[in-house]
Amino acid sequence: MPFDYDFDDNLDNIHEVGMRLVSFGQTIQFHVEDLGYYNPSLIRFYGKTEDGSDIELIQHVSQISFLLMAVKRLNPDEPKRKIGFSEE
Questions:
Q1: CA triplet 81, 47, 74: central angle to 5 degrees?
Q2: pLDDT at 66
Q3: Cβ atoms < 10 Å from Cβ of 5
Q4: Disulfide check for 45: which of 23, 50, 55, 57 has CB 3.0–4.6 Å away?
Q5: pLDDT (tens digit per residue) in 45-58
Q6: Which backbone phi and psi does 78 adopt, to 5 degrees?
Q7: Cβ contacts of residue 74 below 8 Å, gap of 6+?
Q8: Rounded CA gap, 70 and 16, in Å?
């Protein structure tokens, strides 16, 4: 099965991209607002938890493993934001 690069494009207007991480015996779920990278080995995920708290995850590309999921939008009245790396 091919990797779905269009996960966000396949969501309806009431859902946005969320991530679920499991580490150190904890499960963390958050709404992804943006992502970026440092020097190309570190990936940065920015977002908010369900209670609206800001969150940032920085992870080395060799350790990264996450689950993309559809979550109800925190601000459905605002326009949907696209996330991802842009190809220039």
A1: 65
A2: 75
A3: 8
A4: 57
A5: 888 888 889 989 88
A6: -90, 155
A7: 16, 31, 48, 52
A8: 6
Instruction: Quote the distance between the C-alpha of residue 75 and its chain's center.
Output: 16
Where do the DSSP E strands lie in the chain?
A: 15-23, 26-38, 42-49, 54-60, 67-72
pLDDT greater than 90 at residue 85:
no
Helix ranges, the chain (H): none
Instruction: List, for residues 18-50, the tens digit of each pLDDT value.
Output: 888 766 677 788 888 888 888 889 988 888 888
User: How much is the pTM?
Assistant: 0.67
